[in-house]
Amino acid sequence: MPTQTSTITPPDERTHAAALERLDGLAKPLGSLGRLEQVGAWLAACQGVCPPDPIERVRAVVLAGDHGVTDSGVSAYPKDVTAAMVHAFVAGVAGVSVLARQHGATVRVLDIGVDADLSSAPGDVTAHKLTRSSGPIDVTDAISRDLAERAIAVGAEIADAEVDAGAQLLVLGDMGIGNTTPSAALIASSLGLEADAVIGRGTGIDDAARARKLDVLARALARVCDEDRRVADPVARLAALGSADLAAGAGFLVQAARRGVPVLLDGVIACAEALVAADLAPGAQAWFVAGHRSPEPAQAHALAALGLEPILDLGMRLGEGSGAMAAVPLVRSAALLMREMALLADLVAP
Ligand SMILES: O=C(O)c1ccc[n+]([C@@H]2O[C@H](COP(=O)([O-])O)[C@@H](O)[C@H]2O)c1
Ligand SMILES: Cc1cc2nc[nH]c2cc1C
Question: Mean pLDDT for the chain?
């Protein structure tokens, strides 16, 4: 029985049209606020109100997990860093923690599939733990179909909690050494691409590690993809080539869209999750904006397929939701400009 797919109610089209009209009437040359105008109109449509409310409550969730492919030497760092970084998020000293503090956002880190016992971590870090590492996708499925379905449901529960806590804007972050490999595999198998079109240098791998990663990716895609290099069913894709944390991310994004709360996407991991989310729930992508461009080639493919253009292009490749968090002030500016700028007609006598 496939996981239920459903179409998503889109952001309000009439509010979007009203927002574009308001933007054209502001005290500025037509179109002169560039991307901020599109972001402002999108926010208005998501909220169903023009001008949009100021964005006061931004909530980030970091989903952590380990990946069997790390045993093949596909990352520049050892997998113990995943668990170590979970402690850093809890202590508020990770990169995204600093940015979130600066921008008044919350960060919740959750161990979905870390290969360590984090049960002594404070708070509810392990409340949604599903596995200790997902499988090496070049030789076996990452997780069972049953676990993929449970992870999607867990991700939805996590999104519900953030929305119920009052989130006006969500950020989805990731932490997992090796996770650019399953992310690239998900994007390739969603779009029918070959390994060499999606491979990137992740944490900064050298040429030898890149050759190993290319081999892992090619064997993973050959193992599960049909002649089109695709896997049609999104749940099967998450189980075969993803992981528990990536499936939870896809479930999170579907539920955010279902609840009508906009999401700022981060780098290649969130974009892989978004691509699958759009297959699980067609139209979900209308609730997403890309916070930043990652150097990972797979992200560019995912963004093009989703019809998204990143707000920032700073060469960031940290993950954690950091690139999305860096874009938060601009999203806030887009709302305030629409609220507080004068109308040209009120300044210029007829
Ligand atoms: O967000 C991105 O586009 C991104 C690009 C490269 C690396 N990362 C982060 O680095 C880790 C994955 O890189 P790797 O090389 O171990 O696959 C993981 O913790 C990600 O958060 C993230
Ligand atoms: C130190 C470190 C921090 C990270 N944060 C997200 N991915 C990461 C990868 C490494 C290696």
Answer: 97
Type of residue found at 228: D
Each residue's pLDDT tens digit, 43-61 = 999 999 999 999 999 999 9
What proportion of the chain, given as a percentage, has pLDDT over 70? 98
Q: Cα 255 to chain center, whole Å?
A: 13
- Rg of the chain on CA atoms, in Å: 20
ipTM: 0.99
Q: pLDDT value at position 5?
A: 56
Distance CA(50)–CA(29), nearest Å, equals 20
HSE at residue 174, side-chain half, CA atoms within 13 A, is: 33
Domains and CATH numbers, the chain: 13-52+336-347 (1.10.1610.10), 58-329 (3.40.50.10210)
- Contact present, 267 and 316 (Cβ < 8 Å): yes
Enumerate residues lining ligand 2, CB below 6 A. Answer: 77, 81, 85, 175, 203, 318-320
Nearest ligand 2 atom, CA 176: 7
Determine the Cα–Cα distance for residues 133 and 125; give it in Å rounded to an integer: 16
309 is catalytic: no
